[in-house]
Amino acid sequence: MVLYSKHIILEHEEFDGFLELEHGKIKALHKEFSGQYEDFSDFIILPGFIDIHIHGWATGSFWFEKNAGALKEMCRTLPYAGVTSYLATSGADTIEEIQRCIKAADEAYEADYPGAEMLGVHLEGPFINPRYRGMQREECCILPSLKVMEDLYNGFRNKELCRHMTIAVELEGAREVLKFCKEHRIQTAIGHSGATFAQIQEIKDAGVGGFTHTFSGMRGLHHREPGAAGAALYFDDMMCEFAKQTGMTVSHEVFDIAYRIKGSGRIIMTTDCSGLAQTQTEFDHYVRRMKFIKDRDMVRIVHYDGREEWMDPKDYQAVREIELSYIGSIRNMAKHSRVDWFDIMRMTSLNPARYIYVDDRKGSIAPGKDGDLTVVDSNLNLISVFCRGKEIRERDEICGK
Amino acid sequence: MVLYSKHIILEHEEFDGFLELEHGKIKALHKEFSGQYEDFSDFIILPGFIDIHIHGWATGSFWFEKNAGALKEMCRTLPYAGVTSYLATSGADTIEEIQRCIKAADEAYEADYPGAEMLGVHLEGPFINPRYRGMQREECCILPSLKVMEDLYNGFRNKELCRHMTIAVELEGAREVLKFCKEHRIQTAIGHSGATFAQIQEIKDAGVGGFTHTFSGMRGLHHREPGAAGAALYFDDMMCEFAKQTGMTVSHEVFDIAYRIKGSGRIIMTTDCSGLAQTQTEFDHYVRRMKFIKDRDMVRIVHYDGREEWMDPKDYQAVREIELSYIGSIRNMAKHSRVDWFDIMRMTSLNPARYIYVDDRKGSIAPGKDGDLTVVDSNLNLISVFCRGKEIRERDEICGK
Fold first, then answer.
1. Longest dimension (CA), chain A
2. By CA distance, what is A217's nearest residue in B?
3. Which of A2, A147, A331, A399 has the fewest CB atoms within 10 Å, measured from its CB?
4. Spatial CB neighbours of B172, under 8 Å, sequence gap ≥ 6
5. Where are the domains of chain A?
6. Which residues of B touch A254 (CB under 8 A)?
7. What's the ipTM?
8. What is the model's pTM?
9. Which whole-number Å values give the CA distances from B141 to B102, B145, B211, B243, in the listed order?
10. Torsion angle of the four alpha carbons A299, A304, A307, A312, in this order, in degrees rounded to the nearest 10
11. Which of B126, B86, B88, B83 is nearest to B106 (CA)?
């Protein structure tokens, strides 16, 4: 298959020409081409978005359901949000529950579901600081332990799927876990952490790559104690991951301050979506001031002000509006910060691919790389998505939130 | 008099040549010169430092003593800190006391003391928020009042001396005072303020120019409420004043974060020194954990840990080490942030001169401007200072702190 656009965003160049896909890969780029092609003339072809921090989306939740079926749903529907690959993200649950997640990831990897590619697992916890737990379970926040880490790692049939870990580096035992992660090419990020600036400065060379949902769940910036937030802004060699830019969790102005310091080379956009409709119990979302309650086959959403809604959690059209989508987050961010297509490409694809070591096949448009493409119009409306060469273009669903 | 250096820092150029002074002014710059000259070959000639926020220094304190004699001492000794002009800065005292300060400034202006030039007054308060008063007197923090402002302004015999005001813009009545200041070319800055980001966004077009001792005495940066600190970083058109960079009040890393966002074009270095030895009563410096107590002709310094020192407050050599000097602050800052000579020139001279509207005669090295020069070596040690053409070179004292 061949695509044409005036705006194919390569790593260092905006290319006007033809992109040839074959066997799920990008075969070649041509200036001229005489055969049949799909015409995206004025649209922008970006490398597919990679979400390295997503627990669930719409009809599937890895975090809540802990089974391969949830990942199958995420693979199916994430392209409608512009996402072509992702890290299934677990939370601070019991070790037994996290092992269930790991098994689900292995199973999904082997099944190789169509749609967005599940690249592996992001372990958000269990080694996090209960004081900064946010919506994680307090009783499951445990001290870093090399033994537990080895057990988790060994729980993976395919070890490569263990790709990323969020950890509170100030906790006793963190250094041993960081060392293990570095040796096994598991990227690590500071999150749900009370680490001071000095603690981060002291431990960063053990191999910490960045910060999880920068500003949230960490010690904030104070002018006498810069904290983890200050360290995130200060250290040029560390990456800042941001959760979806609703403008509520991190105000648009504070994101922009971070963007102006870090630049698009040191920011990774994620969603941190949960697939809230898939909760298996009662989930209290205190920031949004609403509870999600499983009620037989339905989900009941009870707002703090008393309003109630009922939804079928498996009805994609019904639940897709609950959380801001990846493309919606990027559109929102682009409204409030000065970004060009290269900035967007870096923050959504190139940076995350390099960060989790999949840039040999993801993260940019180049011959030999996977045929993962996200096509948008100039207003960042989604036009089409290609996952490993296969176009996914469900017109009704694809417009994202 | 003619000076030679390979490194004369003009506004847009590093000039290798000869600088001619005459009648207190810079007469000309020459590439070639055949007469006698003072040789500063490898030293750097900068426009003189302008400190727009200084209450007192060493043997003189405008804030504590409230008389022209204090200003005479400041004019005499500030060149030893690299400062060639300054704004005498009052505090939140009673209106009667502030009027005494104003009279002292008028008297000093008319006397035209030798040394650093007193350019006018920075009124730090009384319109500040008592919750963010820092070391100001709570009972003297009052709501902004146009009537009080007019009375203060009219207290000046020479109205031009009323140059700058620090104000808490969230307080009722602030808009009228800001309007008055704008009409009378009195620069205003937000300080000792609990203003939210939104409040600043709403009022900034009334003519607020910047922020006083950025980060200190204001609402800090939080990712959901950027506060005054966030506004200081965010708004490109507003200036950030920083008090002396000891690294304690504002950590070097947080200063550097601000520097990387604002750039040297939007930062003004000041000292906020008080001339602590000149306290007239007992002054509790809770940040430094020491008290300064007037005891007949001496000052007693009582550390919280019980240690005591006695000093003669009028002995410059004895008291000059109490507070970090302007040049010491710049040296300290330059150790922790990547600055070149142009950056230093802007933050110490060009920016403050423009900010308080004296750039017709101060702030840069150019023919026609005042002969205010600060000569340093490559490590920012003070070599010589020229105040309106007159060299001040007391070898023993000039090395600064």
1. 64
2. B223
3. A147
4. B143, B144
5. 2-46+365-398, 48-274+323-350, 276-319
6. 221-224, 226, 230
7. 0.91
8. 0.93
9. 18, 12, 18, 21
10. -10
11. B88
- The predicted model gives A29-44 an average pLDDT of 96
Name B345's Cβ contacts closer than 8 Å, sequence gap at least 6. Answer: B9, B11, B46, B47, B364
Q: Cα B83 to the chain's mean position, in Å? A: 9
Does A361 score more than 60 pLDDT? yes
Contact A2, A37 (CB under 8 A): yes
Show Cβ contacts of residue A308 under 8 Å, excluding neighbours closer than 6 positions: A300, A301, A302
Quick check: B226 and A261 CB within 8 A?
no
Q: What residues does B376 pair with on adjacent strands? A: B44, B382
Residue A239 has pLDDT above 90, yes or no: yes
The CATH architecture annotation of domain A2-46+365-398 reads Roll (2.30)
Interface size between A and B, measured as CB pairs under 8 A: 75
* B389 neighbors B25 (Cβ within 8 angstroms): yes
Q: Which of B226, B250, B261 sits opposite A223 (nearest CB)?
A: B250
Structure tokens of A267?
């920011």
Distance, in Å, from the CA atom of B88 to the CA atom of B101, rounded to the nearest integer, reads: 9
Q: Which residues of chain A neighbour B260 with C-beta distances below 8 Å?
A: 261
Contact A226 B261 (CB under 8 A): no
Class of the domain covering A48-274+323-350: alpha beta
Q: Are B182 and B176 in contact (CB under 8 A)?
A: no
The verdict on whether A360 is a catalytic residue reads no
Helix axes A326-336, A252-262, angle to 10 degrees: 80
| pLDDT for position A276 | 94
Instruction: Give me the pLDDT at residue A395, please.
Output: 62
- Same CATH fold, B48-274+323-350 and B2-46+365-398? no
Judged against a pLDDT cut of 70, whether residue A396 lies above it is answered with no
Q: Highest mean pLDDT: which of A130-139, A389-398, B280-289?
A: A130-139
Under the banding of pLDDT at 50, 70 and 90, the label for residue B286 is: confident
Of B216, B220, B233, the CB nearest to A257: B233
Q: What percent of chain B has pLDDT over 90?
A: 95
As a whole number, mean pLDDT of residues B212-221 equals 96
